[in-house]
Amino acid sequence: MKPLRTALFVPGNRPDRAEKAIGTAADAVIIDLEDAVPLAEKESTRVLVREVLDGHPGRRMFVRINALSTPYAKDDLAAIVSGNLEGIMLPKVESPDDIFTIDILLTELEEKHSMPPGKLEVMSICETARGLEELYPILSAKPAHNRVAVVTFGAADYTLDLGIALTREGKELEYPRARIPVACRSAGIMPPLDTPWMVDLKDIEGLIADAKKAKAHGFGGKLLIHPNQIEPCHDVFTPSQKEIDFAKKVIEVFEAAEKRGQAAIQLDGKFIDYPVLMQAKRISDLAESMAKK
To answer: Do residues 107 and 144 make contact, with C-beta atoms less than 8 angstroms apart?
Structure first.
């Protein structure tokens, strides 16, 4: 999967909002069939979601289906298959069995609709105590197709599960924020997306501080629930021009030093060795990838 800094949620039963979300600068749009849709509207909303998907080729779009433990998941999947669908967001993932099950269901749909095997990717949500404890085994599962492209963190359900409060300071999220990126890195998948900022949608300073905390733990981006969160999060998760310029300088100077038989040097008063070089290459690669968007 290409890097993701922002993924904007939009209710599936509000196609007007979906159209607006698709027109934003968010890296991806997640059309929601789960929490944002009342039970009485689940069936009718699927039709609306499919219409939105079919109408926007080239846009990165995912659909959050209902959990596999509900009676809605299979019908969600059957109704939303579109050539413009990049993948699905799977809530309440708590065991490797969930990964095997979703791969089987998606493979059947791909065969039915003559789609390439493994085309539909999965955003896996970690949002319960069990899901957090089982995260590395979940990501280490080996179904027929390796579909889990990115993990996302859902703090609302996580705090609900633990019976704790979600606060502006976010101290209650330090443990899962430390665990999730480590599990993703260990399993060899891209950096995860952090939970949406839900404490106060008007508090942009709080959003920025929250995003910076997530980035410091190893998250590569953030889930969003309002368009006004896009630009601030892009600013946090996109390398600055100063960072890009220094990274390029590190690569250039270090490669020259290697030819002289050196692997530990100083640059502008900073110690540079192989780990620093690798970080510089990651920043440079990320910047290049974002420039192609």
So the answer is: yes
